[in-house]
Amino acid sequence: MQLTEANKKLTQLGKERDKINASIKKEEAQDAGSRDYNKIALLEDRLEEVNKEYEQQITVVKKARAAMDSQLETIGITGMTLRQLTDRQRDLNFAVRNLTPNSANYNKYKAQLDEVNERIKTLKGTAIETKGSLQGLAEGFNKYAAMSATAAAVLAEMGISGSKSVQDFADIKEAESQVVKYTNLTKAGVEDLNEEFKKMD
Fold first, then answer.
1. Backbone angles phi, psi at 21, to 5 degrees
2. What's residue 35's pLDDT?
3. Under a CB-based contact definition with an 8 Å cutoff, are residues 91 and 4 in contact?
4. What is the pTM of this model?
5. Domain membership flag for residue 163
6. Banded pLDDT at 166 (limits 50, 70, 90)
């Protein structure tokens, strides 16, 4: 059982004990003729049961505190996960709120609480820094991915344009060969004629 749960049960038993004591005092404050002695007897029996449970719960709380202290000594605060630290923080907060200020136990648990709070703050700060680093990395990747995609598109277009140029060149050579075939001009003559056409453009 965690310390917080043990402390909550102890608090509930304490409240129930106070309520029973108040009910007994209320019944005893009435006139002797109107007192309900059976009700008082039942309340006193229940008070005895609650007191026994309360004493047993004090032992449970002490064991839970000892287990919590042992765990801290075994793995140390730096070995605890964020979840363990948060559970420990909750237990220590409850303990500190229910102890007499400036008592030995209060000071001990308050110091542990401060240490746990500092560790949680450090871990959360590290998580935020990591998130920022990852975010920056992702933004850089996105930036360069866009540039890479643009470069790939340009290269693809150049490939298509180059392919088209090769095809155009082949078409020109085919046309020149057709001109040679049908006009009885030499190949050199056709090329000279082609150069003259280029100058007209």
1. -60, -40
2. 82
3. yes
4. 0.43
5. yes
6. low
Instruction: Among 59, 75, 91, identify where a domain stops.
Output: 75
Domain that holds residue 21: 1-75
Residues of the chain by 3-state class (helix, strand, coil), percent to 5:
90, 0, 10
Question: pLDDT tens digits, residue range 30-66?
Answer: 887 788 888 888 888 988 998 898 888 888 888 887 8
Q: Which residues contact 89 (CB under 8 A, 6 or more apart)?
A: 113, 116, 117, 120
Task: Indicate whether 138 belongs to any domain.
Answer: no
Q: How many CB atoms neighbour CB 45 within 10 A?
A: 11
Confidence of residue 168 (pLDDT cuts 50, 70, 90): low
pLDDT at 38: 86
Cα separation, 80 vs 116, whole angstroms: 10
Of 46, 75, 104, which one is at a domain's C-terminal end?
A: 75
Distance CA 173, CA 181 (A): 12
- Integer Cα distance of 124 and 136 in angstroms: 18
**Looking at residue 142, what is its pLDDT?**
63
Residue 50, in any domain of the structure:
yes
Helix/strand/coil (H/E/C) assignment for every residue in 146-180: HHHHHHHHHHHHHHHHHHHHHHHHHHHHHHHHHHH
